[in-house]
Amino acid sequence: MVIEKEIPPFWEWLLGSSQQLGALVQWVLVMLGLLVLGMILATLIGIGHYGPTRGVRRTLARFWEGCLDLIHISPRRVLGMTRLALQEAIRRRVLVAFLLFSVILLFGGWFLDPESRNPAKQYLDFVLTATSYLVLAVAVVISAMSLPTDIARKTIYTVVTKPVRPIEIVLGRVLGFTAIGTLLLLLNGFASYIFVIRALDHRHEVDPETLQKQTVISDEGDREVLRGETTAVFKHRHRVEIDLKTGKGQTDIVRGHWHQVWIENRGGRQHYVLGPPEGMFVARIIHLADDLTFLDREGRPTKKGLNVGNQWHYRGYIEGNSRMAARWRFRNITPQRYPKGLPLEMTLSVFRAHKGDIERGILGSIVLENPRTGMRSVAQNFIAREYSVFQMLIPRFLKAKDPENPDLELEVDLFDSLVDNGELIIEIQCLESRQYFGMAKPDLYIKVTDGSFRINFLKGLYTIWLQMFLMVAAGVMFSTFLNAAIALLSAGAFTLGGIYSQQILYLATEEQIIGGRSFEAAYRLLTGTPISAPLEEGPVQTLLLTLDAGMRWVYWVIGHMLPDITSLGDVRWVTSGYDIPTNNLLVKTFVVLGFVVPLLIIGHFILKSRELAK
Amino acid sequence: MIGSKDEVVVEIRNLQKVYRDFWGRQKVRALKGLDLEIRRGEIFGLLGPNGSGKTTTLKLILGLLFPTEGEVRVFGLPASDVRKNQRIGFLPEESYLYRFLNAEETLSFYAQLFNIPARKRWQRVNELIELVGLGWARRRQLREYSKGMARRIGLAQALINDPELILLDEPTTGLDPIGTREMKDLILRLRDEHGKTFIMSSHLLADVQDVCDRIAILHQGELKELGRVEDLLKVEDVTEFRVRGLSKEAEEEIKQVIAKHNGQLLSMTNPTTTLEELFLRIVRESEQHPGRRVVGRQLPQTTQSSKSS
Ligand SMILES: Nc1ncnc2c1ncn2[C@@H]1O[C@H](COP(=O)(O)OP(=O)(O)OP(=O)(O)O)[C@@H](O)[C@H]1O
Ligand SMILES: [Mg+2]
After folding, report:
1. How many domains, in total, are found in chain B?
2. Quick check: A158 and B92 CB within 8 A?
3. I need a labelling partner for A165 at 20 to 30 A (CA). Which of A236, A329, A436, B18 fits?
């Protein structure tokens, strides 16, 4: 699981901590800034139209009326406007989009491959991406077109001459189109779910030739079992094991799923029957570490691992067969949560300085350490493979080294000796020289349990819903002062800007950018100056650098005004099989509200200050 | 109802409107300093040729446009204050209604905007649909309505809140003769029985003459004439006689009497619509002497009397 931006616990996020200002305070500050900016702008426009004294007086009067309007908002009028928006959308046959989606699903079958390594992820990625694009597109279009159409057709005359407050017109539309979008999202989501489940459903049969009777010897007594293989479906087979006494068994896990097997008597003959695939769609609830630190080649603690040359700084690397190590610090490790031990999972990345057998995997070792006493467990080895989840259970009772006498190995209880007050350090090393392990904090976690996939699917839809809600609010806001086509373009630009908001911020905050920022880059492009060559000194260079320095501010403001739409959609969690933490949903909900509220209010004041009959 | 008969419902002071284009350049001076006062219980007619500023005046009263100079107060509130809309009904020039709604949905929607609770709302919707005679088409979408039907539902929409002040922009266009008659009767009835105030614009002079108490004649954004219809139409130097059962001899005798007094007989039969004459004269004169105008507030205020009494 890749988590680029970690989401802090809700209350800490909202109210802040000793080092950081809470989101709420930041929001209030930004709102105050917007208010001052808006007032200045409105006053200037007023003065431009009506001269200084009347301009200022009118602007203030309008502002005051607008504020009163906000207080006099009436649920019934909002509901009226909402219903109108809904009726408009339905009578304009917006739900036809659902048919379009069904067609996409039909054709999707051509590109999707149930025989791939991780078909569940591929299928889920496809349907959820298609759903979100379609729903977002429909939402933006209907929300950006509606109000301009009303103004162009002058139907707005009969509305604004009623005691309707502009906020009610704006809010009603946002709610109405959100409702339509919700309906569309649910329809598409439901169709997607059915599509994926059915497309990947398959049954094997037991290949009778391969079946052999064997005896399994164990502490609980010996068992007679049948072992064999299944037929190949979707290019894979399973091994089966059936207990002869119970007549039941199961297959091994291949391509992320397994099947139940049982014996049925039909017409006096024994049949071996396999059930549907299980474990294909999971929602792992995981317990992440609090932080990850590294040890450098000399074994000294550092913040970051090595950078092996790819630009993406997400993972830090440790070199094999050195003193380098990665250390995760966990909290809240209690015997109540993990009575049988710690079910660890790892998604390490493997980097090879020399190409060996790619399929083979790289040897690593894992050690548990008590953060207070420094007692360490005896190292356990494992083999990490690229692109796969490595699972391992750390048993509750294990061998550890006596801190006083490192040669002495003791049998200890994990929770008594290695966990201190719920805290535990897990250390990973790479054992093969000239090989590297890359890791980020979420690459090693404890799997608490499996959550419900269906609920997680719904959570994923909810994050799409949040994006849609935001887009609708933006579309309606733009449509309060732009015509249909321009409003649509602006809402589209807002969406795109939101998707790239992190890159825009990067342009603002990064000190050195190869090839320069906007103006320098454009200059280089026009003159054909390669990005590596320094610019000639002189007035041109000074001018470009000054302009670009100014642009940094512009980017900073724009980057902070735009919502980070990419990280709003959490469908990656769903497609990679992780349960979306409720905390994330909570934070994102408030982020979206933080944008929607000012969008509504801005729309209100724009509508208030507009001559609608022009 | 609150307010006396002399209460000023709409007060227009030095109202000017300049339409500008996107770049703020002046396009049209649609109103050039209009002064008017409209009192409770009046039926006030705005007359003028096409493009004279009637619709512009109504939009300024409604707050759909903002004045370039001067101000409009409705029920003592500035036109930009939405609270005034609670007591206003408006029938626009054309029926700007949602074509995807049917008659019931349309009226219920507008009623909702007045915060009328559901039960009262449906009662009101039913009443109004009956009033405008559209019971037979209440479930049909407005896109299927004829112009006159749309006009009727437009009127129903304007009355949904039982308003005190009703603005009608060319209320009879698109209506058949019966509809026109009904519209006029309705206007008179609402004024007489419920004390409503009307401001209507029209260039159908017969309509104005039939219902309006006072009229203002606009031409190129200027007020050219203002007063009670009766006073304006009374032509002092013209006397009309309409007599029944007169013999040929008696007619001849009267003609002689007129001739003896140096009078000139204009017609003995149907008198012409004199409002039409007045209107044409004013427009012609105004074209010859641009800039002359009357100022509404300076005219002596006459007491109310209803036309139909
Ligand atoms: N939105 C607008 N932009 C620019 N000019 C306009 C606009 N609306 C009206 N005008 C101009 O203002 C003047 C007055 O128009 P208005 O619509 O008030 O006339 P009217 O008296 O209602 O005419 P009609 O009898 O044709 O309805 C006209 O010259 C018209 O061209
Ligand atoms: Mg007009």
Report:
1. 2
2. yes
3. B18
pLDDT at A60: 92
A331 CB within 8 Å of a chain B CB: no
Instruction: Please indicate, yes or no, if residue B3 is contained in any of the structural domains.
Output: no
Answer with the one of B200, B233, B266 that is the final residue of a domain: B233
Domain containing B157 equals 8-233
Please report the pLDDT score of residue A209 as a whole number: 84
Q: Could you tell me if B29 and B171 lie in one domain? A: yes
- Under DSSP, the state recorded for A432 is S
B297 in a structural domain:
yes
Set of chain B residues whose Cβ sits within 8 Å of the Cβ of A78: none
Task: Give the model's pLDDT for residue A357.
Answer: 61
Q: Is the CB of B48 under 6 A from ligand 1?
A: yes
**Residue B102 has which token pair?**
């049917």
Bridge partners (DSSP) listed for residue A278: A258
What does the pLDDT read at residue B300? 39
Which residues of chain A make contact with B112, given a CB cutoff of 8 A? 76-77, 79-80, 83
DSSP symbol at B304: P
Q: Is ligand 1 within 6 A of the CB of residue B200?
A: no
B59 alpha carbon to ligand 2 midpoint, in Å?
A: 10
Q: Within 10 Å of residue B295's Cβ, how many Cβ atoms?
A: 13
Same domain, B197 and B293: no
Buried b (16+ CB within 10 A) or exposed e, A408-425: eeeebebbebbbbeebbb
CA A50 to chain centre: 50
What are A337-367's pLDDT values in tens digits? Answer: 898 899 999 888 887 766 666 567 888 999 9
Contact flag B82-A91 (C-beta cutoff 8 Å): no
Contact A431, A321 (CB under 8 A): yes
**Does one domain contain both B182 and B279?**
no
- Mean pLDDT estimate for chain B: 83
- Cβ-Cβ contacts under 8 Å for B2 (sequence gap 6 or more): none
Q: In Å, how far is B286's CA from the nearest CA of chain A?
A: 27
By the CB < 8 Å criterion, does B270 face chain A?
Answer: no
Same domain, B164 and B295: no
The single-letter DSSP state of residue B245 is S
Residue B41 is encoded by which pair of tokens? 């219980």
| Whether residue B191 is found in the same domain as residue B287 | no
Cβ distance B125 to B138 under 8 Å? no
Give the residue whose CA is nearest to atom 19 of ligand 1: B51
Over residues A75-117, the pLDDT tens digits come to 999 999 999 999 988 888 888 888 888 888 878 777 788 777 7
CB of B182 closer than 8 Å to CB of B151? no
Count of alpha carbons within 13 angstroms of residue A287, beta-carbon side:
19
B196: closest CA among B64, B75, B88, B61? B88
Contacts of B122 by beta carbon, 8 Å cutoff, 6+ apart: B108
Torsions phi, psi for B212 (to 5 deg):
-80, 145
Contact A231, A255 (CB under 8 A): no
Specify the residue for token string 């052999």.
Answer: A212
State how far residue B97 is from chain A, nearest Cα, in angstroms: 5
Nearest Cβ partner for A84 among B109, B141, B154: B109
DSSP B84: G
Note whether B24 and B155 are same-domain residues: yes
Contact (CB<8Å) A74/B115 = yes
Give the CATH number for residue B201: 3.40.50.300
Task: Judge if B156 and B281 occupy the same domain.
Answer: no
* Residue B268, in any domain of the structure: no
Position B287 in a domain: yes
Mutate to test the interface with A, among B81, B83, B112, B121 (most CBs of A within 10 A): B112
What residue's CA is closest to ligand 1, atom 31?
B51
Q: Which residue of B has its CA nearest to A48?
A: B24
B223 and B286 belong to one structural domain? no
**Which pLDDT belongs to residue A320?**
87
- Radius of gyration for chain A, computed over Cα atoms and rounded to the nearest angstrom: 30
